[in-house]
Amino acid sequence: MLKDVDLGGIYLASLVPRLLLAAALFFVCRWALGRSRLLGRVWYLALFEAALFVVVFAMLLPFA
User: Fold this and answer.
1) Is the pLDDT of residue 2 over 80?
2) Averaged over 6-15, what is the pLDDT?
3) Do residues 56 and 26 lie in contact, with contact meaning Cβ atoms separated by under 8 Å?
4) I need a surface site. Which of 24, 33, 56, 57 has the fewest CB within 10 A?
5) Using CA atoms, how far apart are residues 58 and 64, in angstroms rounded to an integer?
6) Which residues share a beta bridge with 7?
7) How large is the greatest C-alpha to C-alpha distance in the chain, in angstroms?
8) Which residues contact 7 (CB under 8 A, 6 or more apart)?
């Protein structure tokens, strides 16, 4: 069972830290793909970025 995270007396859902970590990893992946010029080959950039974020977030879910 997922437990809430206590942040200075404020309780956050357990997914909030994972969302923040996923966002940080997403920006690192997007930066690396941009530097390697692979993002220029993507047909629909917004859809690709949304899918990339979902994949990164889904990879973090099993870790409790």
Assistant:
1) no
2) 86
3) yes
4) 24
5) 13
6) 10
7) 46
8) none
Q: How far apart are CA 63 and CA 21, in angstroms?
A: 12
d(Cα 25, Cα 63) in Å, to the nearest integer?
Answer: 15
Q: Which helix (H) or strand (E) segment is 9 a member of? A: none
Residue 48's contacts (CB-CB under 8 Å, 6 or more residues apart) are 39, 42
pLDDT band, residue 31 (cuts 50/70/90): very high
Per-residue pLDDT averaged across 33-37, rounded?
95
**Average pLDDT of the residues of the chain:** 91
Query: What ranges in the chain are assigned the alpha helix state H?
Result: 15-35, 45-60
